[in-house]
Amino acid sequence: MKILNVDQIRSLDQSTIQHEPIAPINLMERAALTFVDWFVDRFTPTTPTKIFCGLGDNGGDGLAIARLLLEREYPIEVYVVRYAPRESDDFMHNHRRLKLVFDSVHYIELTHDIPTIRHNEVVIDAILGSGLSRPSEGIVEDTVKAINRAPATVVSVDIASGLYPNQPNGSTDVIIEPDYTVTFQLPKLAFVLPKNGRYVGDWHILDIQLHKRYIDLAPTSYYFTQPREARLLLRKRDRFSNKGSFGHALLLVGSYGKIGAAILAARACLRSGVGLLTVQVPQCGYTILQTVVPEAMCRPDGNQNVLTGIAPADQPGKQGPALTDYSAIGIGPGIGKAPETLVMLKNLLPTLKKPIVVDADALNLLSENRELLNQLPPNSILTPHPKEFERLTKKWANDYQKLDLLREFAQKYRVVVVLKGAYSAVATPDGDIHFNSTGNPGLSTGGTGDVLTGILTSLLAQGYDPVEAAVLGVFAHGLAGDRVAEQRGPIGMTASDVIDALRWE
Ligand SMILES: NC(=O)C1=CN([C@@H]2O[C@H](COP(=O)(O)OP(=O)(O)OC[C@H]3O[C@@H](n4cnc5c(N)ncnc54)[C@H](OP(=O)(O)O)[C@@H]3O)[C@@H](O)[C@H]2O)[C@@H](O)CC1
Ligand SMILES: Nc1ncnc2c1ncn2[C@@H]1O[C@H](COP(=O)(O)OP(=O)(O)O)[C@@H](O)[C@H]1O
Ligand SMILES: [K+]
């Protein structure tokens, strides 16, 4: 699903109005009806509901919603925040229509007009929408602050009043902090950015049948991965397949005290469909790996505690295939930053012809030896969390700047970068960014990143295109986390649970 900017959304409205065709006021009515359907599914008709409306089309939506909730006999109160002398046409139309059936619309001009909001009430926030052009001040600011102070449940129409859809807010901006945001047709970029979490809440997209062809043709570099889109990437297995059909992956993982990372990556790799898996660990991990993951072959490193890439002295040249013979290599989880491991990385990179997966301390070694970045095989997948990405680039002033850095980095080094976190962002060498839609805070626990490395290495080994592997792998990883959260709640989730909950269908 595309993420479009405000100007595009405005043109999308116009395009719908012209091509359907539909009158603007009827499009607003459709949006309001769809919102009300969502609302009545969640809140019973006895819910005392206060609707706060601005003077633009977001306020117009609010007034139409008020009339439709009145028809359904919800106990509503309506407040219009009168911050300016001018109202939009569709606001005025809905204002007239509401007043025909409801004679107690309140107007907020001064602070003492703001009502007390109680805990059992629901507030519908339709003060400002995507037309926000400056920070709130005066009576708008006071009303927003009062709503934020209130113990009520808050639902924002389209976007929280005061939040910019696709540009950074100032640090002192006053913005509604809703429990829910109910938006129309497409997500807004602001919804997937970490700093905005409290200004978005739990968000939902309602289909109001805007012009599909406009959306299909609209240029954008931002996407939000829907379940249907991720499933389309998944390959079916041929009945006559054999293990040779699904690649042979190699994981370079683990060091003394961090063999667990190796185990997690290995188990996740196997659970993601790879045909064969070999794991290279320092010798201290050999027995552990062979015991805990019997399905994997083990290639012991010559060093007891860290990876060096050198074969053990008693079996020179008998370590198995050359590194370049594997279908895909994943490197990083638990490897540490020993000088010998850096040498291994330096020797390995120039020999590689196929994309690899680079995570954790392998990324930190790249940050400290930046000349190595130019030696990454094109289309390799890098999976930094924000701190690792900062080490690879620099500090950012806000989330929008972070996205610019992400895109520039992926384009400059021709790699796929998975910036991990809520709504993990997959940046492609062509400059697109796909935000993931699955996952939950239960995944914020040690080892879940190692699981992701195993998954992505498995998909690369099976021949998936690297961008598709990243989008699909990140989606499946988050979905597994969502399954665990559903079954046992997010708080007790472990990385092993996530592996067990992986399902490819
Ligand atoms: N396709 C869709 O998604 C559909 C969208 N629809 C709905 O339309 C909404 C967008 O409507 P909208 O363009 O009228 O914008 P909205 O925010 O209501 O008001 C802008 C007005 O407020 C003013 N203003 C700006 N900032 C201000 C501030 N801080 N403090 C005070 N005033 C401020 C601004 O002034 P100006 O910048 O012109 O000086 C202008 O007069 C959208 O969010 C959705 O709810 C649906 O109805 C149909 C389908
Ligand atoms: N709040 C969250 N919502 C969704 N996913 C999350 C959240 N927190 C963490 N994750 C996911 O969990 C994984 C954590 O990876 P990482 O930070 O590398 O952990 P580790 O190094 O311990 O394995 C990433 O895939 C990330 O996207
Ligand atoms: K709003």
Brief summary of the model shown:
AMP binds at residues 420-424, 449. By secondary structure, this protein is α/β, with parallel strands linked by helices.
Topology:
Blueprint: H1 6-19, H2 24-42, E1 49-53, H3 57-71, E2 76-81, H4 89-101, E3 105-108, E4 122-126, H5 138-149, E5 153-157, E6 180-184, E7 202-206, H6 212-217, E8 222-224, H7 227-233, E9 248-252, H8 259-270, E10 276-281, H9 286-292, E11 297-300, E12 328-331, H10 339-348, E13 357-358, H11 360-368, E14 381-382, H12 386-392, H13 399-413, E15 416-419, E16 425-427, E17 433-435, H14 448-461, H15 466-488, H16 495-500
Parallel strand pairs: 1-2, 1-4, 2-3, 4-5, 5-6, 6-7, 8-17, 9-10, 9-12, 10-11, 12-13, 13-14, 14-15
Antiparallel strand pairs: 15-16, 16-17
The site of potassium ion has 11 residues, from strand 4 and strand 5.
Descriptive notes:
- The protein is 37% helix and 14% strand.
- The chain is α/β, with parallel strands linked by helices.
- It folds into two domains: 6-219, Rossmann fold (3-Layer(aba) Sandwich); 230-234 and 242-500, UDP-N-acetylmuramoyl-L-alanine:D-glutamate ligase (3-Layer(aba) Sandwich).
- The strands form two sheets. The protein has a ten-stranded mixed beta sheet with strand order 8-17-16-15-14-13-12-9-10-11, with helices on both faces. A seven-stranded parallel beta sheet has the order 3-2-1-4-5-6-7, with helices on both faces.
- The chain is elongated and about 90 Å long.
- It starts with 5 loop residues before the first helix and ends in a 5-residue tail after the last helix.
- Bound molecules: ligand NPW, adenosine-5'-diphosphate and potassium ion.
- The site of potassium ion (K) has 11 residues, from strand 4 and strand 5.
